[in-house]
């Protein structure tokens, strides 16, 4: 891993040079590299697992939790899944070169707004080694160079995976500096990466609030922060109760660790009397621990439930815990979501067209659902093929960040000697 | 001006609350406010000029340069122009609510990506008071609240203009906190504004490099930096020479203080012998001071021209000064632009389809021109009606920032009880 000894600035400058070649690469060349990555991952699985075993051993010695060890672990099946992911990205449409809009100006100039790659994207992530390939594949396909900064706990796994990608990229005739690994896990190195304005066009942190805060303190490069998902399911007075129960259980319990899972259930007071006595047992049966406000507790509380505090309304549990509260109107639900929501995914269950419209207009979030689970906020589910992250900020991209969102645009203007009067 | 005594944080929170109302305001209501602004500007012109006179007097006492005094000065004609600008914004299409794309997912969910306002936009600007109305009008029309932070030298002018806007907005039934002025010019205040992540969605600095550096050091709110325009006109070997001369003169001299003016003329060595002896006299006749590289000087230099230094290639003169250099190929021109350009507006003059395509593909700038002047990079020229700034960064918006670019989007998803499997 000779690359480890290069400085962060040098790695980023090499990535910038590579990005100029990648930006002009044919779709078929990029797809060949992606298929080669898939093949090499399978062929070199023993080597990957050997490196991974070294990380796992070091992790156990360092006392990593079982959950972290599990996120770090690779096996043949997981490697095969990662390889399939790379091939799936090859099958997606190429976003580069798409004409977004255009026309002829008053003076005869023809203008086209054309999608082009951003350039160099840095991804900062924590233990999971599959992120190395997933993000490299999406950046390659969208014509971007990528600088990966994984955690030190996955250093051997990420090193081999990056080497495999670089070999495949070079084999397809593209510059291997299209994919680079900044190996260590130090905060100084993060600061260096986050200030390479000459070479890095975007940093995407995939990690916890500590990582985001560290980046926010130092970054001069643009960052897309994926905020927490404090998401709500609001059951309106006119909701179909079977749908409402299914949606509440699905949004909370189907995969509680996902950022698009629900953390709070809001219930219209007018329907709580019939809804909560059915919904709360269903949630408890799904293993959900409940934090109830006073009215909900009085109506359908059981021993084992807890009282919801002010902190519960703002909490992203990422676990089988759900806050449940009464609201007296759609407007009160909108106000609650406005105060505590993180702008990720918000759902109303309602039979009323007026309530649905009020919720859609009143909620300021990336994804607003009517009569569906919040769990669909996902690049794959949205038909974008894959996502590199999920944005809750408003600038550039909101919601799933897929291939198109890894691009910017350029105006191409063609004339016949026009000058400005 | 009671608002001056409010804290920056309070002003921004009030703007946030107003932004929720504005985001849902009808187009006709917003247009009524814009027309009322136009009428009030005319009706209250004496009051505006009186306030402006106080700023001018204070500016002269403080020793402001004639150029700054001129930028600060309003007269009845300029006020009428500003009023016409507000009415012109009323005539533009409303960007809010536009469906950008959408479709039905595999599971029957209907997804629409809909344009919505960003929320609260802060604009930090220097002396010109017309910016107060121009930016307020664009933000109002796009459903955004605006927090204006003008310079202390224009405090009285901006105060009256903001008051006029707030009266008109309130008269149309919209919250007057939709438009607020942070009055002072202190850096501490700028830092406070740039860290209101809870309430401010975007900061747009309209000013020099010092302002941008100050923001970059402190901002945690997203910023769109409008970098300098180090723009090039490249005259290819196959260029029509009349077009090339007209474009070079126009790009440099038609309005040298504009960010879309050219700063460097690159000439293919194969055509320099016939082009420079005609072009350089035309440029000198337009008042342009020339900085020539060795080959250009040897071929067509005159006493009074200067030698181009390394600094000249990177300079944004914003004045009647032009660097002129030889290049030996289209690729060499692309490389020069890649090294020294600021990603704003770049032009090739060529008769060759292959050269035009190579330039379009190889130049990473917001606007790439073939056979036209760089001076067209402008929201008005591009048919966007108006612009609040011009972006050379790649995230969110590139090139002119008009009404659409002051918006983000939201996914609206409608179902009939769908849950994730």
What topology emerges from the helices and strands here?
2 copies of one chain form a homodimer.
Chain A: H1 8-23, H2 27-43, H3 45-61, H4 66-72, H5 76-90, E1 99-104, E2 110-117, E3 120-125, H6 130-141, E4 145-149, H7 155-171, E5 179-182, H8 187-193, E6 202-206, H9 209-218, E7 231-235, H10 241-253, E8 262-268, H11 269-285, E9 289-292, H12 294-300, E10 306-307, H13 310-314, E11 321-327, H14 330-340, E12 345-349, H15 353-362, E13 367-372, E14 389-391, E15 399-401, E16 407-418
Parallel strand pairs in A: 3-4, 3-6, 4-5, 7-8, 7-12, 8-11, 9-10, 9-11, 12-13
Antiparallel strand pairs in A: 1-2, 2-16, 14-15
Detailed description of the structure:
2 copies of one chain form a homodimer. By secondary structure, the first copy, chain A, is α/β, with parallel strands linked by helices. Chain A has 2 domains: 2-226, Aldehyde Dehydrogenase, Chain A, domain 1; 231-376, 3-Layer(aba) Sandwich (Aldehyde Dehydrogenase, Chain A, domain 2). Helices cover 43% and strands 21% of the residues of chain A. Chain A has 15 helices and 16 strands. Chain A has helices at 8-23, 27-43, 45-61, 66-72, 76-90, 130-141, 155-171, 187-193, 209-218, 241-253, 269-285, 294-300, 310-314, 330-340, 353-362, and strands spanning 99-104, 110-117, 120-125, 145-149, 179-182, 202-206, 231-235, 262-268, 289-292, 306-307, 321-327, 345-349, 367-372, 389-391, 399-401, 407-418. In chain A, the strands form 4 sheets. In chain A, strands 10-9-11-8-7-12-13 form a 7-stranded parallel sheet, sandwiched between helices. Chain A has a 4-stranded parallel sheet with strand order 5-4-3-6, sandwiched between helices. In chain A, strand 3, helix 6 and strand 4 (145-149) form a beta-alpha-beta unit. In chain A, helix 2 packs antiparallel against helix 5 (76-90), helix 2 (27-43) packs across helix 7 and helix 10 (241-253) packs across helix 11 (269-285). The longest helix of chain A has 17 residues, at 27-43. Chain A is globular. The termini of chain A are far apart. The mean pLDDT of chain A is 94. At the A-B interface, helix 10, helix 15, strand 13 and strand 16 of A face helix 10, helix 15, strand 13 and strand 16 of B.
């Amino acid at each position: 891993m000779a690359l480890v000894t290069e400085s962060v600035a040098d790695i980023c400058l090499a990535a910038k040079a590579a990005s100029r070649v990648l930006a002009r690469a044919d779709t078929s060349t990029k797809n060949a590299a992606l298929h080669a990555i898939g093949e090499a991952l399978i062929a070199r699985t023993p080597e990957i697992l050997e490196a991974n075993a070294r990380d796992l051993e070091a992790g156990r010695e360092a006392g990593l939790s079982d959950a972290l060890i599990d996120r770090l672990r690779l096996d043949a099946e997981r490697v095969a899944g990662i390889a399939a992911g790379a091939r799936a990205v090859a099958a997606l449409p190429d976003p580069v070169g798409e004409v977004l809009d255009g026309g002829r100006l008053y003076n005869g100039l023809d203008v086209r707004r054309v999608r082009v790659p951003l350039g160099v994207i840095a991804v900062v992530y924590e233990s999971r080694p599959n992120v190395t390939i997933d993000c490299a594949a999406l950046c390659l396909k969208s014509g971007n160079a990528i600088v990966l900064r994984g955690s030190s706990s996955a250093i051997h796994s990420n090193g081999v995976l990056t080497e495999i990608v670089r070999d495949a990229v070079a084999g397809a005739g593209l510059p291997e500096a299209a994919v680079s690994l900044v190996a260590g896990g130090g905060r100084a190195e993060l600061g260096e990466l986050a200030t390479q304005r000459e070479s890095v066009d975007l940093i995407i942190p995939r990690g916890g609030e500590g990582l985001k805060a560290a980046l926010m303190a130092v970054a001069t490069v643009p960052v897309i922060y994926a905020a927490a998902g404090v998401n709500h399911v609001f059951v309106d007075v006119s909701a179909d109760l079977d749908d409402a129960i299914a949606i509440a259980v699905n949004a909370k319990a189907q995969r509680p660790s996902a950022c698009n899972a629900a953390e709070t259930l809001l219930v219209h007071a007018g329907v709580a009397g019939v809804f909560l006595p059915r919904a709360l047992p269903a949630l408890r049966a799904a293993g959900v621990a409940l934090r109830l406000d006073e009215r909900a507790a009085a109506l359908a509380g059981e021993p084992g439930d807890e009282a919801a505090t002010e902190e519960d309304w703002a909490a992203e549990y990422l676990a089988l815990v759900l806050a449940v509260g009464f609201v007296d109107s759609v407007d009160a639900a909108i106000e609650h979501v406005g105060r505590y929501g993180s702008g990720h995914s918000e759902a109303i269950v309602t039979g009323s067209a007026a309530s649905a419209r009020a919720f859609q207009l009143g909620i300021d979030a990336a994804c607003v659902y009517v009569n569906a689970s919040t769990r669909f906020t996902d690049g794959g589910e949205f038909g974008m093929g894959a996502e590199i992250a999920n944005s809750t900020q408003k600038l550039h991209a909101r919601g799933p960040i897929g291939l198109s969102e890894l691009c910017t645009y350029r105006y191409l203007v063609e004339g016949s000697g026009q000058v400005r009067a």
